[in-house]
Amino acid sequence: MTPADLQTLIARGVKLVTAESCTGGLVAAALSDHPGSSAVLMGGLVTYSNDAKQALLGVRAETLSTHGAVSEECAWEMAIGALRALPQANLSVAITGIAGPGGSDYKPEGRVCFALARRDGVHEDARAQTIDFGALGREQVRFAARDHALRLCLAGEIRHDLDLKPYG
């Protein structure tokens, strides 16, 4: 995130809330590193445990038991929950993944699910995507996920050309 990136978000009227799991607040921290970030960053929630995802963001137990915490479905619900937690926000980004070490054949180390949700008046739209960064090591996966989440926020709108899947 550069000062110019922050100015782009300010000019677009972005009021962002983050919902972070594997990045542990890195996205919010990258934004808050710059003077003037309070014009964009409304707040951030670090919901590392499933209990926190449910209690703070309203992620459904059924979603977690059916799809797991590392899923687009969970990321969608995190993003919508973050918007609802901070009514003054108009954009949320959610990140949940396996930074490592660990993982499985089904959900390998380095898999991270992202979701963007946008509020336009009373209408909410959410889209998600999964990126397999690979077994880069915990720190590098977390930084790669942070950088990707920031790029998604800079895209400005939830556009179909971002290769994000619609919610639901």
UniProtKB/TrEMBL annotation:
<feature type="domain" description="CinA C-terminal">
    <location>
        <begin position="7"/>
        <end position="152"/>
    </location>
</feature>
<protein>
    <submittedName>
        <fullName>Nicotinamide-nucleotide amidohydrolase PncC</fullName>
        <ecNumber>3.5.1.42</ecNumber>
    </submittedName>
</protein>
<dbReference type="InterPro" id="IPR008136">
    <property type="entry name" value="CinA_C"/>
</dbReference>
<dbReference type="GO" id="GO:0019159">
    <property type="term" value="F:nicotinamide-nucleotide amidase activity"/>
</dbReference>
<keyword id="KW-0378">Hydrolase</keyword>
<dbReference type="Pfam" id="PF02464">
    <property type="entry name" value="CinA"/>
</dbReference>
<dbReference type="InterPro" id="IPR036653">
    <property type="entry name" value="CinA-like_C"/>
</dbReference>
